[in-house]
């Protein structure tokens, strides 16, 4: 079915070019309905998602290890989001990866257009999600690429520019490190669910999981109170590791009726549960709605690394988590089928995974 989606339904406008045009009014295509605008229920207080040092999980101190597990367990159940520090990924690599992508987005438009994407795979340089004609759009451009499985990895679809910062090599090294970190976190999530440490990874297809990267570029916006950089959604995949722009806050996480603006810790990754882990955990862990606000003074770059199940194996609640008291909430569905379901509709809050629940 994706193969039918060869082209976007209307001409693509790069948000960065709108931002740089000097207009003081954003086009109506980007104006959100009043109930979705960022000033509604936004909480700019001191509340923040938990920041967790995960080095204790690898040491010899059993108490420290247990304490780390407990903190992550609580964060998964209460927030669906947490930040990790002392995670083993080089700070220099994190900075180089973000900077290489910032340089890419500041290349002349004609050089970036070489990598323009289509709805068929989404891979490349893009400016919209979803294929609804006339949809209200988000104030962002992005670059999406496949990292795993290796048969989907195509270096020619990765930016070769700017070559002075060795963009492709940096992306490859960064992906390798994030795969390693995600694998460790999967073990922690499994243990916290009372499962064997490899249970969730095995449900993802063992060594045959998927991984992809979406780099988000949020240009300055003359009317940030009318739009969003990314509409409210929960992540359709397994787990997301986000390298935020630690100079500019923008990510907001839903907590009850409020939107909490995340304050990124320097050299931390923001980790969140995706819909596939919600399904596997039979909703013991829930993916949480989040969105991105933009501002008029500063652009923002963030790197979202998605760690996903193998695309063609059915995902359903792990049998150990299905009991007479808590029957299976979800029918089996492959990640390919789920992703198509999302791509046709674009970001739609939490309605996607909720609509899959088995009727009672």
From TrEMBL:
Matching PROSITE patterns: FE2OG_OXY
Gene3D superfamilies per record: B-lactam Antibiotic, Isopenicillin N Synthase, Chain (2.60.120.330)
Pfam families: 2OG-FeII_Oxy, DIOX_N
Protein's organism: Cephalotus follicularis
Keywords on record: Dioxygenase, Iron, Jasmonic acid signaling pathway, Metal-binding, Oxidoreductase, Plant defense, Vitamin C
One BP annotation, GO: negative regulation of defense response to insect
Superkingdom: Eukaryota
Required cofactor(s): L-ascorbate; Fe(2+)
Family per record: Belongs to the iron/ascorbate-dependent oxidoreductase family.
InterPro entries: DIOX_N, IPNS-like_FE2OG_OXY, IPNS-like_sf, Oxoglu/Fe-dep_dioxygenase_dom, Plant_2OG-oxidoreductases
Catalytic activity field: jasmonate + 2-oxoglutarate + O2 = (1R,2R)-12-hydroxyjasmonate + succinate + CO2
Fe2OG dioxygenase domain residues: 208-309
UniProt entry tagged with the keyword Metal-binding: yes
Protein name: 2OG-FeII_Oxy domain-containing protein/DIOX_N domain-containing protein
UniProt GO molecular function: dioxygenase activity; jasmonic acid hydrolase; L-ascorbic acid binding; metal ion binding
């Amino acid at each position: 079915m994706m193969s039918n989606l060869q082209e976007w339904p209307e001409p693509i406008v790069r948000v960065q070019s709108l931002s740089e045009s000097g207009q003081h009014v954003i086009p109506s295509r980007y104006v959100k309905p009043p109930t979705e605008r960022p000033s509604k229920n936004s909480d700019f207080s001191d509340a923040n998602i938990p920041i967790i040092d995960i080095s204790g999980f690898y040491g010899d101190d059993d108490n420290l290890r247990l304490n780390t597990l407990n903190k992550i367990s609580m964060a998964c159940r209460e927030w669906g989001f947490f930040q990790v520090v002392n995670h083993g990924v080089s700070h220099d690599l994190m900075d180089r990866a973000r900077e290489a992508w910032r340089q890419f987005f500041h290349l002349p438009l004609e050089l970036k257009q070489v990598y323009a994407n289509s709805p068929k795979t989404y891979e490349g340089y893009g400016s919209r999600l979803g294929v609804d004609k006339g949809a209200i759009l988000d104030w962002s451009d992005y670059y999406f690429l496949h990292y795993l499985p290796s048969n989907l990895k195509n270096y020619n679809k990765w930016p070769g520019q700017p070559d002075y910062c060795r963009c492709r090599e940096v992306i490859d090294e960064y992906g390798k490190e994030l795969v390693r970190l995600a694998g460790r976190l999967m073990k922690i999530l499994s243990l916290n669910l009372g499962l064997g440490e490899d249970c969730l990874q095995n449900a993802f297809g063992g060594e045959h999981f998927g991984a992809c990267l979406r780099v988000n570029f949020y240009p300055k916006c003359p009317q940030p109170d009318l739009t969003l950089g990314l509409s409210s959604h929960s992540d359709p995949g397994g787990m997301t590791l986000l390298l935020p722009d630690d100079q500019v806050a923008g990510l907001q996480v839903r907590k009850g009726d409020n939107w909490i603006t995340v304050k990124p810790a320097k050299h931390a990754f923001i980790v969140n549960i995706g819909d596939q882990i919600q399904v596997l955990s039979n909703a013991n862990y829930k993916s949480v709605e989040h969105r991105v606000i933009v501002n008029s003074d500063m652009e923002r770059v963030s790197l979202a690394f998605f760690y996903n199940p193998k695309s063609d194996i059915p995902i359903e609640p792990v049998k150990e988590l299905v009991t007479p008291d808590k029957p299976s909430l979800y029918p089996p569905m492959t990640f390919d089928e789920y992703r198509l379901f999302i791509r046709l509709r674009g970001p739609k809050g939490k309605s996607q995974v909720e609509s899959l629940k088995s009727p009672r």
